[in-house]
Each structure stands twice: as structure tokens, then as C-alpha cells.
């Protein structure tokens, strides 16, 4: 038997096949879900002045416990341009700049107002600077805020915006062409002749890539005909070509020879992985190609482990691979063989249970699963209650 490539080696070889795609600059809202192409540095200081954190009165702490004479008002966007002198206070609101001379904010719940005179009506601020957000509390101009290769989450977009950016440099969308192969396959809902089967890998793949910065090019269902496959592969204009089916060693498994006839070079084929062993990877012109196995569960798992990370890598992600987390085995698991196993499992109160039948054709089992339980090559048996690594898929 040919030596199977370990999963981690396959992942590293895959991302070595191509660098990230070109950089473009897009408005903040369009950068969501993409990865920062460069470090994002603050263009301004936030806050750019000492601001009140509460609604109340700006005072000089040394004037405690009052009383004070209220001389004006400072609101967000409308500061007060006179200094606060001894015994004076300024009505102030959350987010408003502290008037010159003041250093502390007394919350209004602890104050009593009698016309222009203000009295302490509680404990009052406990220390100098209480309820004041100092200039630069969040960040200072020039600070590095978002690392290159970090995902642009909603919160990072907001940070970039408050830091003065209206646009961000990101990688352009990755063009992913994809096809299913197999004579037995027809679109879901089509009346089935004997031997036919609804094709479900394309819609599952497209849904697994939703949320990633991709442009999808659907090449449809291709028959098990060498010349048709070759012609379809020759005309691919994409960053990534994903096929499913025909990846194994049967007489009708024509994907590899058709890819090669179309000019592809295969970098690796067959991984020490279950499900997903017959996956192949290489290059076809300027595209990276990934030939996934046809079994739906194998196609799903290899998309999680390879296709999505490759898209993330091409999009500039610094950490493109899914990171397992540790939970408790809800039941004993037997020792593993030489292939990394991704068992379809369910999580109940933080405990993982593997489905009884782990057949890579079974979509009902996959659909019930909310995690993949990771079993390393030659991992020893695991007792109930022992730690196990999982990947979330829900
Ligand atoms: N002698 C060997 N046979 C097989 C091996 C092996 O090493 N030696 N590997 C097995 C493994 S593991 C897998 S996984 C499968 C993968 O084979 P293929 O990639 O060639 O897949 P197909 O034969 O085309 O299809 C397998 C199965 O899945 C159904 N299928 C295919 N595409 C779709 C689709 N788009 N939607 C729904 N269902 C699909 C297809 O009808 C088959 O039932 O090979 C083993 N064999
Ligand atoms: O490795 Mo295959 O993907 O088990 O069915």
C-alpha cells in the first residue's frame, strides 16, 4: 500500500501551493469577514480628550465636599469653553469633554441641584479623576491595532473605523470553481431513473464556503467521460478548482487523469485521513486544485480541513486552519489505526459522543453531528471522561 500523507503535512503542502491573492482597498463595511492585508495602525488618538464617563458634574476633586456654583454645560459634541475655577462645577454628560480646570466627575445621582448651586447628596467621587476617561485610554495615534492576517470581525471593523480608517486593505475575493463528477448524479428534485442519485456535494460545498470572501463559479455536474472532464478543466478560470468524486482508484475514477491531460500537476494524493483519504491536490495553470472524494461525508470533512483553510490562506489569513478544542469523552473510544479519524459526534453538556456507524456515505449521521471528534494516528483507547479534541461543525 502506498504511504499515506499525514494530515498536517498535507495541510502545509496545500498552502505552499500558492501565495495569497492580490490586495485591494475596500470600504470598511465590505471588509467584513476578510483578513487584514497589512497591519492596521491608529490614525488618531481615542479618546482625543479627557471625557466624562457618566452624566453628572465636572468638578475639581480638591473642592470636595462642595457646595459648587454651576457655571455651564458640556455635552458630547458641544464642549464648554470656560475653565472651571475653585468652587465651580459644570453640568456634563457621558462622552462630553472635561472643561479645563476640572479633573473629576460627580454622578448626578449623588448631587442635588438648587438653582445654580450644587450640593453633595451622597458619597461623591472617591478619588481624583473618578468617572473620567483619559485622553488615549483606548489607543494613541500610531498604535498597531490589528495584525496583518487577522480576521476582520465586526468588532475589529468598528475599531478600524474609530481609529480613523474609512477603507481597509484586504485580499480580493477568491474565485472558486467547483464541479461534481459522476454519471449517477442529477440535481436534487429530479425524478430518478434506476441507479441515479441526487447530487448534494455542490450545494453543501457552496454553503460551507458562505461567509468566506469567495466568488463561486458553479461548473455543474460532469459525467464520467474523460474528454468532457478534460475540456471542463482546461477552461477553468479561477484561483481554486474543487471537484468531488472520481478521486479513488476505480475504473470510472477519471478525475486525476483528466486533470493531468488538462495540464495539471498533482502535488499529493491520498492522505492518512478518515474520511477523505483519496483527496488530491495540485495546480492547474494559475489555479490550485483540490479533488475531493465523492462520498458526501468525505467531501464535507475535506472541505472543513482543506478547502476552507485554503480559501482563508488565499485571502491572507495568518491562521487558516481550524483549531480543535478539548472536551470530555462522553463514552469510551477505541484505539485508532494509522489514519487520523474525524468521528461524527454530538455534544451533550460538553461531553462528546461518537455516532455508532461511521460510514462516509451517511448524510443523516453527518446532519445530526455537531462536532468531529479528532483521533490522532495510533491514538490509544480513551476512557469515558477523558479529554478529547473536537472541531465544531454546528
Ligand atoms: N479499492 C478502493 N476503493 C476505494 C478506496 C480505496 O482506497 N480503494 N477508497 C474509498 C474511499 S475512502 C472513498 S472516500 C471513496 C471515494 O471515491 P471517489 O472520490 O472516487 O468517489 P465516487 O466513487 O465518485 O463516489 C463515492 C460515492 O459517493 C457518491 N457521490 C459521489 N459524488 C456525489 C455527489 N456529488 N453527491 C452525492 N453523492 C455523491 C457516489 O454515488 C458514490 O456512492 O472511494 C472508496 N473506494
Ligand atoms: O476516506 Mo473515505 O473518505 O472513508 O470514505
From TrEMBL:
It catalyses: adenylyl-molybdopterin + molybdate = Mo-molybdopterin + AMP + H(+). It comes from the Bacteria. Pathway: Cofactor biosynthesis; molybdopterin biosynthesis. Transmembrane segments: none annotated. Pfam families: MoCF_biosynth, MoeA_C, MoeA_N. Its EC number is 2.10.1.1. Residues 177-313 form the MoaB/Mog domain. Keywords: Magnesium, Metal-binding, Molybdenum, Molybdenum cofactor biosynthesis, Transferase. Its cofactor is Mg(2+). Belongs to the MoeA family. Catalyzes the insertion of molybdate into adenylated molybdopterin with the concomitant release of AMP. This is Molybdopterin molybdenumtransferase. It comes from Sphingomonas rustica. The lineage of its organism: Bacteria, Pseudomonadati, Pseudomonadota, Alphaproteobacteria, Sphingomonadales.
